[in-house]
Amino acid sequence: MKNRIYPLLAMLVMSNLLNAQVRRNTAEASQNQKAIAANEAQLERDQNELAAFKIKLTEFEKAFANKNAPKAASLKSELVSAMQREIGQSENKIAQDKKEVSQSQSELAASNRELKRSRRDLATYDNDSKDAHDVRDDRRDRKDDQRDVKDDKADLEKQIARTNRQKEIYGILKKYTFSFEPSYYEKAVANKALFQEFATTMEKDIAATKAEIAEDKREAAEDSRERREDKRERAEKRRNKNW
């Protein structure tokens, strides 16, 4: 009796593990599609905001060149307000990047569990060439997930650094009043350059978002492959164990 029960229990556990993996892969695919849509919307918004910022900056530089203090002060105020809004969005991006790091770490943990399960299957007395194939697939999937964790952590660090620099620039320019007096002119020129540096951080944000969209699409392709592999593995287990 016991000899019949143990194989049944083993098959039940394996079936539950495979079904759980299918659900997890489906959830990951849904998350990737949502992330792609959100990043594409964010990219469009950021590009529009950068274009508007550059227009204002061009107007400011013209007022600066003409030493039109009232016009320069008005445009400076508008630019600083845009910078404040951008910083708020950058902080939201940091929060989102932290979530992506957590998600990629969770996916790596799942890949580690899958690889351990495949290695156990390969170590059993009734293993076959398909079990070895599963181990190779799971090793590749784990390597992909390890790369994703590394990339997401790097993205987070860069976003934090950009945001911190944006805050520094904002803090300087918010308190600064541009003056065209000869004794203050050199400082005014130096601080004017900070507006362009801020615009550069916005450009880097856009480049990062484009890279993130490309990463999300690559991950979506990997998830699709993993779902096909899981489907094949489930079919093999049913045939081999007569589930």
Would you mind describing this structure in some detail?
The structure is a single chain. Helix content is 93%, strand content 0%. The chain contains 4 helices and no strands. It has helices spanning 2-65, 69-123, 129-175, 182-241. Helix 2 (69-123) runs parallel beside helix 4 and helix 3 packs antiparallel against helix 4 (182-241). The two termini are 19 Å apart. The model has no long low-confidence stretch (mean pLDDT 84).
Distinctive features:
243 residues, mainly alpha
How does the SSE layout of this entry go?
Blueprint: H1 2-65, H2 69-123, H3 129-175, H4 182-241
Helix pairs in contact: 1-2, 1-4, 2-3, 2-4, 3-4
Helix % is over 70%
Report the radius of gyration as a whole number of Å.
27 Å
How would you classify the quaternary structure?
single chain
Low-confidence spans: none
Quick structural overview:
The chain is mostly helical and 243 residues long. Helices cover 93% and strands 0% of the residues.
